[in-house]
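Objective 1.3, modelling of assemblies. Example input:
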Amino acid sequence: MCATNFFARIYYNYRRIAKTIILFLIISGPGVIVMLADNDAGGITTYAATGAKYGYGLIWFLVLLLPVAYYVQEMTVRLGAVTKRGHAEAIFSAFGPFWGWFSLLDLALTDWLTLVTEFIGMTAALSIFHVPPIVTIIVVSIVMLLMVLQGRYWTWEKIALVFAAINLIYVPGAFLVHPSVSSILRQGAIPHFPGGFNNDIFFFLMANIGTTIAPWMIFFQQSAVVDKGLQEKDIAWEKLDTFVGSVFTVVVAIFIIVVTGTVLKGMQVESAAQAAIKLISVNRYVGTFLAIGLFDAGFLGAICISLASSWALGEIFGWAHSLNFKIREAPWFYGAYLLALVTAGSVVLIPKAPLVLITLFVQVIAVTLLPATLVFLILLLNNEETMGKYKNTRWQNIIISTIVVVIIILSTLYAISALFPNLFK
Amino acid sequence: MFKGMRVTLSQRTGEFFWRKFRKIREINKRYEKSSIKVTPTVKIALLFLRIYLILLVLILVYKFITLVR
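Predicted structure (tokens):
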């Protein structure tokens, strides 16, 4: 009798845990995708350069960015699930046409420029394997189009999750370079500034923050939550999804730093593709992993960024704007998505196109939108009429306001330092 | 024949832009009334954002002028 009860209890617990995991797997998606897409081509370059310059010395700082990313993105989950509106529509509705148009046009421009940088990353990564840029752009655009044209959000999300999983390629890559765990813990776990606090390190800290929070992430996740049809009852699960995603994004960043910090320490790294080429000469597999990871990062970033714009435009212009629609049902939505892809990809193919200037411009334009997006997010989350019991608590407001003030100051300084490189020297 | 086609094309273009303009006016009208309660905090936040944007635009203009020179 006792033994039967024991086994019944084990079976019951097994079923309960299995159901919980299945439920999580069904609801999870937007959080993990947006967080891993955050490690886009620009992000990979930043982490690779950070590792090459400071070794493991700034790993502690990346760990600090985990709650920053989580707290900001978690708010979009509540806002999307409760209001059933995307972020663009929420801004128009709450703050009127001026701020609405400003946010929408700035988002479209920032997204398009960022999309160009994703294509730069993808073409650079595949050129290591001797794939011509034109082939990369055509194939990538076709694959990205096919991903959305199948007419189901669920399918798109699962395909995107596969690409998100490839982002974890840096984890085995780090083991291949045999880093010293004690050195990582000694140099990376204790907060300090390698070589003292100076302008160089300040620039790197700002760059790492800049890659952690981007305006498109806020628009993307809120729209994805709405498109997936998540309800208020799903908020807890989606918050967990966002937390898991933020852990992944920091883990990937740390492992990239471990790779370049172990092999390329002291070298000047200008781009992730350059880091991959240098790594290939040291360890063929690790360099190849970095190149594959860079391509994947650019791809994942591109699919999320172009969707963020299409969703936002669809919300405001009243187009049908869901991945659950077929192309005939939502031609403008898919048209905007395709137009962004084709034009951004074409820019990369233009001979002597000012790609460096575009990369610099992205940082500056994103900073014009980021403070407004973050401030609107806090104000919207404090609107009791729409948010009800899901509005921000006092502690959430204190934490998020502190984070937002720090992000605004540092990202502004980052943009200014990008415009005037000698200002802080 | 070609002249006739050109007129049609320009008319169509004009119509297209007029439709877009009307749509934008429609959107502006739809969201004319702010749905959020305009508390002093909201007012201060929006004022801060306006000042911040003006400063950023001024910096960009300054950078552009120095680049052109």
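Chain B touches chain A at residues 23, 27-28, 31-37, 41-42, 45-46, 48-49, 52-53, 56, 59-60, 63 (CB under 8 Å).
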